[in-house]
Amino acid sequence: MTIIPLVSALAPLAALFANAVFHVFFSRVGKLRRNALPLGAFLGLVILACLDLGAGGNPERILTDGAIYVLFSYCYYHFNNLGETARRVRILRELSNAPIGLTSAELLACYNAGEVLDRRLRRLEESGQLARKGAVYVVAGGAFLPAIAGAMHFLKRLLFRRTGRRT
Amino acid sequence: MPFSALIFGGVTFAAGLILHVALWRVRLPEGNHTMALLKIFFALYALSYVFVLGPWVPLSAAQVVSYTLFYAGLVLSYLVTYSALEVNSPTLEIMLWASQRGHQGLSMEELRSRMTDDYLVLERLKDLRRDGMVTIQENGRYSLSKKGRRLARLFERYRRLLAAGMGG
Fold it and tell me: What is the ipTM of this complex?
């Protein structure tokens, strides 16, 4: 009797694992590749709902497990984002591909500010956040991303009393 | 007590956040901030058992698991967000500058003059050296330390699993 709620409390971790498996699966399927991350998160949530409803469907359990699942999925999203956008990870990978190491000039020949900027502008344009109007870029996707940028700016000032710790 | 995991997890985390902001405003920790944050949040988790949950609010084993997972989820979510605060994100900076410019917009020349190799790439290389991921050889070449190689391999395998490119 007592083991069932204990196992049920671990349901968010099982759902997170399912989320990662579905994400990897859909990432390898051509047409669904672009939406693999939200699809994985949604199917993980479906698995969680099935597990919780199967264990009795107590509202406290559903709400608690749902909150835990959302938090861990957010961490998984960030881990995935690190591989996609983090400059430090990219530098590590460039160095990993160079058996005798790289000078800073050699590193900049394979990865430089031009590429960093082009990749970000392309992603922002593709997601509709930014649009090119003649020779300039303007905000196109509403206030969400600028609001996040503003919130991060505020937190930096709150914690570090300036807008960045390292740069 | 209903919703005990959410209530106690939220309250303990909020206490950790207040302590963290207060400490950071007095003096920034030397060295690794993530480790300093983990110590604060772990200490509060341990104290919550000693002074509150243990003597006053007995929890079932399932509630303890949920409380721990919820609290860990909050702390990890904050840590990944904090890591984005430590360094400037080019994407968010572009959006902030563009929104400040309004209809006037942001020109490519201005972006290129602000976002230089030093700012975007070489500063991150310095971070990697400081964190012990990268070492510099006598001939001036940078190479990976054991720690850096492990991290590079982790991401290489993960990206291969996703059939994804180099990223960055």
Answer: 0.83
